[in-house]
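Structure ticket #2291
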Amino acid sequence: MTEPRWLDEPEQRAWRSLMTMQDGLSEFLDRQLRTRCGLSDADYQVLAHLSEAPEGRLRPFELGGLLRWEKSRLSQHLGRMENRDLVTRERCLTDQRGAVVVIAPRGRDLIEVAAPQHVADVRSALIDHLTPAELRTLTTIGDKVRKRLAELEREQLDREQ
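Resolution: structure written out below.
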């Protein structure tokens, strides 16, 4: 086994800063959504994707892919959202074994109220405090890390097969 490559001081500061920022931003945005609209961040993500989909409808596998959630997590969360009249599940007309997740009128009303407030919170906490150059850098970093994660995921799948 090879010796671990420990993080040096600047790498450690960067990593911890990223983790603290990510956690703090997520907690702040989730708290704002819950307080103002009674939605969790997960609820908001589901409703946002459905509200942007044609006719407010997506197959569960499509929604799960957009959210990067496992099937069981999606199913359980959609069940809770159905109980609160935010979404419905209907039979798929083109695949009788399949289902379609549909944004319910109450869900549409909530996302229409929540979205402008959510974007204002994102602006207030992050966007409006960065220069255009910093925003480009943040985008570059995010894209680079996402690409690397996809490569690592493919490598892991290849090893498992």
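Closing remark: The first helix runs from residue 9 to 37.
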